[in-house]
Amino acid sequence: MRVLDFDNTVYSGESVLDFYIFSLRYNPKAVKLLFTVLKYALRYKAGKMTLEELEKGCAAYAHDYICSFSEPEKMVVSFWNSHMKKIKKWYTPQKDDIIMTASFNVIMDEVCKRLGVSRCVCSVINKDTLEVEYLNFNKNKKEKFIELFGGAVIDEFYTDSISDMPMIEIAKSAYLVRGSKIKRIK
Predict the structure, then answer these.
(1) Average pLDDT, the chain
(2) Is 101 helix (H, G, I), strand (E, B) or coil?
(3) Structural contact between residues 170 and 155, judged by C-beta atoms closer than 8 angstroms
(4) pLDDT band, very low/low/confident/very high, at 89 (cuts 50, 70, 90)
(5) Region 82-92 average pLDDT
(6) Is 90 exceeded by the pLDDT of residue 98?
(7) 179: left (phi over 0), alpha (psi -120 to 50) or beta
(8) Cβ contacts of residue 138 below 8 Å, gap of 6+?
């Protein structure tokens, strides 16, 4: 089985950031939420905030952001119509692939459908309440993988970041993806 991170691994860039920028065409006023979310992300990266505080902070703004659009589902389809070209050429989906990403289900559901990937473990926004339920990030990825797939063997794990070390540790082999270059690291 192959397990793959998505952003900067399969997708060239950060899909959530690209989606956010794309969404400003539909509602330019949503720009005010960017600075708040960036503040949380930078504080977390600097070690001044726990993962739990990051989850809580992002949850508070995700709801307001999504509610600021009249037809978010159509916006997601339009986004992938223009951004499928950012799927890296090296990636050819296989039937046993699992994508493990911090990106949200509201974005990932559409791209996985287009790629034919049936198993995607991602951060979750409840589509009824529009509340963040779960962030699939750092150690959460490994915990969720074990919860969902038990002792399944990861033959290959692909990532762009050493922050995925918990997943790297449980894979038979691991690969670091930088642009279109793939280097075995385990």
Answers:
(1) 90
(2) strand
(3) no
(4) very high
(5) 98
(6) yes
(7) left
(8) 51, 163, 164, 166
